[in-house]
Specification:
mainly alpha
């Protein structure tokens, strides 16, 4: 198991009340699971974007960027 560290956080009162009401085991465990889910989702999205970038046609991207730059003038 990963080591734990005590931190202080500030939460919106409505979110805190919801978390307290639905935490089951403990508020700390609930918040830890929420942060873990967010990290997993961000990693998943980053992976999807990386796959899209790897498939991109560099010439097409260059043409699109050139078009965007010409619109700014």
């Amino acid at each position: 198991m990963a080591s734990k560290e005590v931190v202080s956080v500030t939460l919106d009162s409505d979110l805190l009340e919801y978390a307290k009401a639905h935490s089951g085991r403990s508020l700390s465990a609930y918040v830890n699971e929420a942060v873990a889910a967010r990290v997993q989702e961000e990693r998943r999205l980053r992976s999807l974007w990386s796959a899209k970038v790897a498939q991109a046609d560099p010439d097409h991207v260059a043409r699109m960027l050139a078009h965007l730059e010409s619109q700014g003038q």
